Structures are given as C-alpha cells and as structure tokens.
Amino acid sequence: MHKAAIFAAEIFMQTIIGEDIEKARHYLMNGELVGIPTETVYGLAGNALDENAVVKIFEAKNRPSFNPLIIHVGSWQMLEKYVEHVPAKAKLLADKFTPGPLTFLLPKKNTVPDMVTAGSDKVAIRIPNHPLTLSLLKSLDFPLAAPSANPFGYISPTTAQHVLEGLEGKIPYILDGGAANVGLESTIIGFDERENVLLYRTGGISAEQIEEVLKEKIAAAQISPQKNPETSGRLKSHYAPHTPLYIGNIDELKKQFDGKQIAIISFTRQIDGIDENRQFVLSPSGNLAEAAKNLFTALRLTDKLKVDVILAEKFPDEGIGRAINDRLGKAQAENKK
Ligand code: AMP
Ligand code: MG
C-alpha cells in the first residue's frame, strides 16, 4: 500500500451501523460519539457531563459553539437531577407528553457544563420516546447531549442512513432504530417569571396540544437571534437543502419558474405536467403527522435530483402543519445566501 493511503486509513474512523445497545453504551462510556434514534430525528450523542465529548459533538457537526445542545435523559427522575426547579406547568405537560417530542428549558444545576448550554443558566432537556434509546439512557449514569446528527445547517436525519451520509468517518457507531416516527425536531418550551409557558420552537407537539392541557393560550418567546445566539434553533441557517426552495401555492410558483427544472413537495396531490419522479406527495390522505414524518426524507431526495428549484406547498397553518411551514420557511430563507 502507498504510504499516504496507510496514513489516510489510520486517521479515518470507520462508521458502523447496527442495533447493538451494548456497543453504543461502550462507546459513550468511553467518551466517544454515537448516532442515536429518537422519535423526532436522529441525534449525535455524547456524554453531556464530559466536556471532551461535548467538544467532539461541536466538531463533528461543524456547529458553532454558541449554539447550545439539548440533553436527553431516560426518565423524569433523571431529568430532575439536572435542573434546579420544575414549574407546575412543566410537570403537567410532562405527564401528558413525555417521553415524547417536548423539550423543557429549565434552570440548570452546576453539574451541567456551561459548554452544553453555551453559557446560559438554562438547560434544554427532554425524554425521547424511542425504545432503543430509552433503554440506552436508562443503562447510563449520565445524560446524553444530542443535537441532530447532521452537519450544521443541513437537513436533519430521520434514518441511520441519513446519519451515515453526513457523518461517515467522524463517529464510530450509529444505533439503528428505524425511520423516525415523528420526523420533525422537538417542540421547545420555556417559562416566564410567572411560570407561564413560552414557545421557543415549534415541533413534534403542537401549540394547540399544549394549550389543550393547560386550558390557556401560550405565547411565543420574544428573542432576537442576533442578541441571543444561544436560542439559535431560531436562526434561519437550519434545515436547508442545497437547492433553492420556494414555499407557497404550487400552481402560482410553477408559473413563476416556467422553463426551470422543478421538483415538487406537496401535501396530498400530484401536480399536472411535472415528471412523477420529481414529485413527493407527503400524505395522500391529508394527514399532517404523516406529512411531517416524510418531510425531511423528501427534502433530501429532491436535493439529490439536482434540479434548479424545489417548490413546496404551504401546509395548513394548524397543529404540526405550523412546524412543517416553519422548516420550509427556514429552508427558503437560505436561498439568498
Ligand atoms: P438541535 O438539537 O440541533 O435540534 O438544536 C437544539 C436547539 O435547542 C438550539 O439550536 C436552541 O435553539 C435550543 N436550545 C438548546 N439549549 C438551549 C438553551 N440552553 N437555551 C435556549 N435554547 C436552547
Ligand atoms: Mg439541528
């Protein structure tokens, strides 16, 4: 073998996909990173209490260190070990929605490294609802910091294969738990001084679902991404395909991009006059949860077609449809960069 090739082989870490919780546990206990399945999207997990592992997460993703990480625990008792205080409304919502796609922004205990929260005194924490990851978390005596397992700025992964596409050679192991059931990131909520709920990011649990449990309206958190880079889940440079994407009424967009190579992401129906292989109908039966589950895979597939533009239908602005529109809107915001 050529000398350079030997060197390359030595620095290249082989990434294995498997279903072995013990193997995942072994790597995590040794400060390594593992791709883990959750019901939202796949996470890039490391020991949240080990600063070296946390640094590896930022490096592998190429994620700016001012962008804080969500930490994952296996039970509510474990969650309480890492936060100073739990508002009554947090507990009420947890009883209903956890394990599940709801992240709580709560005052952190000192044991959580500042690096995880980008210096904030609040930590984002949740209990993911996936059998493999729940048993992994319950077998560990530390929480897992786990942002989405994709290079910073690209579309979040919803299968083990997506993780491999973005992080091959950068992590030793991906725990394969099948396609993510929800397919969108978690909803993030925090609390104001009076312990009322503030919505930081739309996601797998809709505002309506939260309001139904609380029997009151919830407000959006007022944050300026420029002034508060730590809440940068709201920065626009997220979730974006490389191909320019436009969201709106498909028939009108189609006229606007006449003569261009077009791919289409629509809710329930195909569009006349466009090659079927370039069309992705997210839910023929009109089910928003099913559409959410298929969204990121459709974005990846349309991106691979190397067309001029992706045209995405605006979804009904209700329930999880709002989270779908939020992600498509963020992708569109990347066009001008
Ligand atoms: P990701 O795990 O890639 O879906 O992104 C995590 C997102 O959660 C961040 O970009 C922030 O928007 C939000 N987040 C995590 N931790 C905090 C925190 N301590 N304060 C405010 N927002 C947070
Ligand atoms: Mg992400």
Describe it for me?
The protein is α/β, with parallel strands linked by helices and 337 residues long. The chain has 2 domains: 16-220, DHBP synthase (Alpha-Beta Complex); 245-336, 3-Layer(aba) Sandwich (Rossmann fold). It has helices spanning 3-11, 21-29, 51-61, 76-80, 88-97, 114-117, 131-138, 160-167, 207-214, 250-256, 288-304, 320-333; strands spanning 16-18, 34-36, 43-47, 70-72, 102-107, 122-126, 144-145, 173-175, 187-191, 197-201, 219-220, 245-248, 262-266, 279-281, 309-313. Helix 2 packs across helix 7 and helix 11 runs parallel beside helix 12 (320-333). The radius of gyration is 20 Å and the shape is globular. The termini are far apart. The protein binds adenosine monophosphate (AMP) and magnesium ion. The site of magnesium ion has 3 residues, from loops.
Strand numbers in spatial order across the main sheet: 1-8-2-3-7-4-6-5-9-10-11
User: Which stretches are low in confidence, meaning pLDDT under 50 for 5 or more residues running?
Assistant: 1-10
- Based on DSSP secondary structure assignment, what is the total number of beta strands? 15
The CATH architecture of the largest domain can be given as: Alpha-Beta Complex
**Could you spell the SSE succession in H and E letters?**
HEHEEHEHHEHEHEHEEEHEEHEEHEH
Beta content = 15-25%
Calculate the terminal CA-CA distance, rounded to whole Å. 43 Å
Radius of gyration: 20 Å
Structural class: alpha/beta
Number of domains: 2
- In CATH, what is the class of the largest domain? Alpha Beta
Instruction: Give the overall form.
Output: globular
Major β-sheet, in short? 11 strands, mixed
CATH homologous superfamily label of the largest domain: DHBP synthase
Distinct ligands, ions and cofactors found in the model: adenosine monophosphate, magnesium ion
* Proportion of helical residues: 25-40%
Q: What do we call the CATH topology of the largest domain?
A: DHBP synthase
Mean pLDDT: 92
- Enumerate how many helices there are, as a single number: 12
